[in-house]
């Protein structure tokens, strides 16, 4: 694969997309001084959320909260970030900032993290911020399969309208069936690799690849190689398909 010759593994389709590192476009944004952001998923492609990678060579200071009504989730890929309410997040730590959370974000030089934002659909009181470390979350087998473990980073109570999980596949493990549902996903491969089926296409995927899965797209993953495969995956959750975002 030679990007200088116009080659890329990225593919954008009506109801899904594969976004690969050689095609990332790193840009600056007025609301993120000192940062470069590669927005991988956005409403312009049909999604109802935004997902991007954020990096900063010299660090970030006092990044303002998300827009009104928007929830923000961060997952640290390198370095360290902190929020003005006092929490410090190192490698594979995370934070959920619900709408109207009046805190700012800071980052050490060289830090990078995954950023997800979506229009929050409230039910009752908006939940409080959530911070944690992935290694503190015990994995549970998906549908009893101990070769496929799930770590849930957000509570499952009705006040939360989204779910962000880490899925870990033993080499050779796969999802039990091809899923189709009204929820959509944003996914980032963290380790390992395998094959992802999206609609009627089959994509080899590896560390650093990102995927958008739109509502009702047939989807399936099988892990290949000799080491475990892990990905972070978001989905809208706990809400009826008739509740608009």
TrEMBL record:
Domain Cupin type-2: 166-232
Pfam family, any one: Cupin_2
Taxonomy, superkingdom: Bacteria
Protein's name in the database: Cupin
Listed GO MF terms: ureidoglycine aminohydrolase activity
NCBIfam families hit by this protein: ura-cupin
Secretion signal span: none
Coiled-coil stretches noted in the UniProt entry, renumbered to this chain: none
Source organism of this protein record: Salipiger pallidus
InterPro entries xref list: Cupin_2 (IPR013096), RmlC-like_jellyroll (IPR014710), RmlC_Cupin_sf (IPR011051), UGHY (IPR017627), UGlyAH_cupin_C (IPR044697)
Bilayer-crossing regions: none
